[in-house]
Amino acid sequence: MMTARSVQTMRLSGGSYPDSWLRPTVDFILKTQRPSGEIPWFEGGHTDPWDHTEAAMALSIAGEIDAAERAYLWLSDTQLVDGSWWACYREGQPDRSVERRETNYIAYIATGVWHHFLIAQDALFLERLFPVVVRALEFVLRYQGPEGEIDWAVDSVGAPLGDALVTGCSSIYKSLECGILIADQLGQKRDHWENARSRLGEALRHKPARFDRTWESKSRYAMDWFYPILTGVVEGEAAQQRLSSRWSEFVEPGIGCRCENHQPWATVAESCELTLALLAAGQREQAAELFSWLAQWRDNDGAWWTGYQFAERTLWPLEKPTWTAGAVLLAADALTEHTAACRLFMGSTLNDSLEAPPLEAGV
Questions:
Q1: Is 355 within the bounds of a domain?
Q2: 356 falls within a domain
Q3: Fewer beta carbons within 10 angstroms: which end of the chain, N or C?
Q4: What is the distance between the alpha carbons of residues 117 and 182, in angstroms, rounded to a whole number?
Q5: How does strand 93-94 pair with strand 100-102?
Q6: Are 104 and 171 in contact (CB under 8 A)?
Q7: Distance in angstroms (rounded) separating the CA atoms of residues 49 and 105
Q8: Could you tell me if residue 342 is inside a domain?
């Protein structure tokens, strides 16, 4: 049993990046990283390309440039010929019990590579990783439908699994933005990426029927609520309205953001991502308050527990993933404006060529 609200909070503001406080968190990621550059969830756990990238971004924020670049080179080394990655790896080898490839996992390397470049300003790194980003995004765009949505995954032979996710497609929307910015930086403009991103944004804003077609709606999950804001699909006043419309469903005061609106379980990573969404919507004080609640979920070794079941007053599951630590560093960087990448998730730097009003606030 563990009682929440019994420990000191950590309230961050511009210019107050807590380097020494977060150093054990960074060391935890470094200790977990394999010599190959792979970053599993935790010692003995599996690796997936999205969460690996999330942890790599934390290393960049912490100034661990060599370790971050080894993480991206691991992705380069393990990329399949068609540009994809398997959804699950163990000790560098595909776990073939999970025979699918998830499109938002694959696209996320573009976000990570651009994030690293913003911090390191290493043009040679960008040039070296650009072909990897190109292959990944081209693979993902093969699965964009006529209405703009992108299938969430493909099977072992590349057949699409036949549905799309709001959260996954929102993540791809941000990754396409980052891919476009990389291409522009290198003078290798990709007009078809811009068109694909516009069509994806159109689907996310205007075509809800293109998502959750073959299963129960995922709108009960917090990520479906705030990811369109975190990734720049919804901005400005519409973003503020979207957040306020369901705040009481998902946020447990003093604890954090629920994973699902009907479950008494808050997670650190989703609370950090909601912090970023609040910052993107211009709600800095609310973002700082939410993040301040999370210090109680940090363990003595600097790692962060996945979440807290507040009905039973217990940590659950008893896991401390590297990607949770990564989300903490991303939120701390955004709140304190510590690195040149701190604004990456605070809105889009690109406009869609297809003009479209935003999603309804409660969708």
A1: no
A2: no
A3: N
A4: 9
A5: unpaired
A6: yes
A7: 6
A8: no
Q: Do 335 and 287 contact (CB within 8 A), yes or no?
A: yes
> How far is Cα 271 from Cα 333, in angstroms, rounded to an integer?
15
d(CA 192, CA 304): 40
Q: 99, 89, 102: which is closest to 143 by C-alpha?
A: 102
Mean pLDDT within 109-128? 98
Which percentage of the chain shows pLDDT scores above 90? 91
The range of the structural domain enclosing residue 253 comes to 19-336
At residue 122, the pLDDT reads 98
Whether residue 66 has pLDDT greater than 50: yes
Residue 153 CA to residue 87 CA, distance in Å, equals 9
- Is the CB of residue 337 less than 8 Å from the CB of residue 345? no
DSSP helix, strand, coil percent of the chain (3-state; round to 5): 50, 10, 40
Q: Tens digit of pLDDT for each residue in 127-162? A: 999 999 999 999 999 999 999 999 999 999 999 999
Sheet of strand 256-258: strand arrangement: 251-252, 256-258, 265-267, 307-309, 314-315
The rounded distance, in Å, linking the Cα atoms of 33 and 91 is 11
Per-residue model confidence as pLDDT tens digits over 208-260: 999 999 999 999 999 999 999 999 999 999 999 999 999 999 999 999 999 99
348 lies in a domain? Answer: no
The sign one gets for the Cα dihedral 165, 270, 121, 34 is negative
Q: How many domains does the chain have?
A: 1
- Tens digits of per-residue pLDDT, 249-286? 999 999 999 999 999 999 999 999 999 999 999 999 99
Helix (H, G, I), strand (E, B) or coil at 284: helix
Shortest CA distance to 2 belongs to which of 314, 296, 320?
314
For 263, the token pair is 């479950």
Q: From CA 292, how far away is CA 279, in angstroms rounded? A: 14
